Amino acid sequence: MNRQVALRFESEFMPRIVERVARVVDHGVRVAILPYESPRMPTRLNVSAERAPHDDDGHRRGYPYPLNVFLTWDDEEIERLMAPGGDARFLRYLDALGAKLDAWQGARDVDLETRSQAEPSVLFGGLDFEA
């Protein structure tokens, strides 16, 4: 993907993804865009929290590591968003994003509710924009 497409993705689509993810994960979680650096370092979304919360008895809940998830999308999928019909496809994707996050966390030992995960860092890479 060229830098121009990456910048358009970051300016037109990523803010709406950030807003939707922030709404789904709620308070206590940072959602930040990490801009495109090169084909090896594409635009990423980082979803993180300081640490997993404790239960009422002061015990740590969930997995041992605080939330630190990175999301990246397939280059061809990003380019398809720029084609005719891409915006409608993207709106369907945004509507499905909550369910997608639920599915991804179960597959990768991430727990958004407790703001924790099994590994220090988790990548959800090569994502598409299917609803």
Which terms would index this structure?
3 helices; DUF5594; 131 residues; 3-stranded antiparallel sheet; DUF5594 domain-containing protein; 40% helix; alpha+beta
Overview of the structural elements:
InterPro entries: DUF5594 (IPR040953). Residues 1-130 form the DUF5594 domain. It holds the Pfam family DUF5594. It comes from Caballeronia fortuita. With 131 residues, this protein is an alpha+beta fold. The protein has helices at residues 3-25, 75-81, 86-107, and strands at residues 30-34, 44-48, 65-66, 68-73, 110-111, 116-117, 122-127. It has one domain (3-127). The chain is 40% helix and 21% strand. The strands form two sheets. A four-stranded mixed β-sheet has the order 1-2-4-7. A three-stranded antiparallel β-sheet has the order 3-6-5.
Secondary structure blueprint with pairings:
Elements: H1 3-25, E1 30-34, E2 44-48, E3 65-66, E4 68-73, H2 75-81, H3 86-107, E5 110-111, E6 116-117, E7 122-127
Parallel strand pairs: 4-7
Antiparallel strand pairs: 1-2, 2-4, 3-6, 5-6
Fraction in beta strands: 15-25%
Principal-axes shape call:
elongated
Give the neighbour order of strands across the main sheet. 1-2-4-7
Secondary-structure element pattern, one letter each:
HEEEEHHEEE
Provide the domain count.
Answer: 1
Count the beta strands. 7
Give a quick account of the main beta sheet: strands, pairing sense, barrel closure: 4 strands, mixed
Q: Indicate the mean pLDDT.
A: 90
Distance between the termini: 23 Å
Number of contiguous helices: 3
Structural class: alpha+beta
Uncertain ranges: none
Please state the CA-atom Rg, rounded to the nearest Å: 15 Å
Which percent bin holds the helix content? 25-40%
